[in-house]
Amino acid sequence: MASTISRKMTLAILALALFSSCLQATLGEIICEHLDQDTCAYAVASTGKRCVLEKHVKRSGEEEYTCRTSEIEADKINNWIETDQCVKSCGLDRKSFGISSDSLLESRFTEMLCSPQCYNGCPNVIDLYFNLAAGEGIFLPKLCEAQKGNIRRGMSEIRSSGMVAPGPVGGVKFWGVAPAMAPY
């Protein structure tokens, strides 16, 4: 009788240990679809894909927010939820529905993005905007350097100095060209 109870206790302890180790392994994994609207924007899933917040309006007119995994991959960052401190110091809003390169032309936004608190302390945000700027042919470190002076003059200098990438040429394919990497 005592050996039966002992075996059952041993099996129960073993099952509990196995369950807790499986639970621990999954708790640290970020899945965009499991995030709420207060943590979705500027998060990166365990797979390295960026999370995006979407707003859907139901037929009743009620707004519903969902978080989903985008096809955009972060460079060298995964399993990351951006801190509220970074969101604030970089001049961002968690309830944003996508980003635009137009924000790089706004002097107040660029000032916050290039601030030491954001630029040196928020690698996920800088990675995101580095790649966004690169897509527009702008080198973010050069933009931040120009921001220290007059931002409007700086942007016009960057645009007219050859720092803007040429548009695509029909029929030409670029093989073996690696995407730009954000500084850390």
UniProtKB/TrEMBL annotation:
Matches recorded under InterPro entries: PAR1
Signal peptide interval: 1-28
Keywords tagged on the record: Signal
Top-rank lineage group of the source organism: Eukaryota
Coiled coil: none
Keyword Signal: yes
Classification via PANTHER family: PAR1 PROTEIN
Name listed for the protein in its UniProt record: PAR1 protein
PROSITE patterns the UniProt entry points to: PROKAR_LIPOPROTEIN
Any one Pfam family match given in the protein's UniProt record, by short name: PAR1
